[in-house]
Amino acid sequence: MTHLVLVMGVSGAGKSTVGTLLAARLGAPFADADAFHPPANIAKMSRGEPLVDADRWPWLDAIGAWLDARAAAGEGGVVTCSALKRAYRERLLAGRPAVRLLHLAGDPALIAARQAVRPDHFMPASLMASQFATLEVPGEAEGVITLSVEPLPEAIVATALAALGEAG
Q1: Residue 30 DSSP code
Q2: What is the value of pTM for the model shown?
């Protein structure tokens, strides 16, 4: 079965780690949303400035184009994106009914502790509060699969595979 999966959550939730492992288990290409940011966005976040919607629209469209290319190739794929606001998720999922949404959710203190020890990431821990303030938790109507970030990444992936209908 070919899957298109969008792994979402705040910075530091483990999107890249879980996404990479999930893609490997599915035998699908993986893309990290950070790679789609234009240099101006990275510079802004590196200065500790949160992005505004105008910064995000081209970034979200680039991620959507990647999903479209995977679907057209029949490959499936796993991509990460914070997708904190419902409007962002709507933009990413519009016209893409095959995309499954996985939300990595957890306690802010746990995620902040993990983010604080991440080496060489442009997103400073000082923006953590803005991430949680911006997060509009997806509801059931969005078809989200919510996964706790508390277990080890391999356990999170096993739960995700089961939810996607794959053998764990």
Answers
A1: E
A2: 0.89
Quick one: tokens of 23?
A: 């893609």
Rounded Cα distance between 70 and 67, Å, is 5
Strand runs labelled E in 40-139: 77-80, 99-105
Structure tokens at 135: 């997060």
pLDDT digits (tens, 9 = 90+) for 6-49: 999 998 899 999 999 999 999 999 999 989 999 999 898 888 78
Find the helix packing angle between 153-163 and 15-26, rounded to 10°. Answer: 50
d(CA 128, CA 58): 23
65/71 Cα distance (integer angstroms): 10
Quickly list DSSP for 96-111. Answer: -TTEEEEEEE--HHHH
Backbone angles phi, psi at 87, to 5 degrees: -60, -35
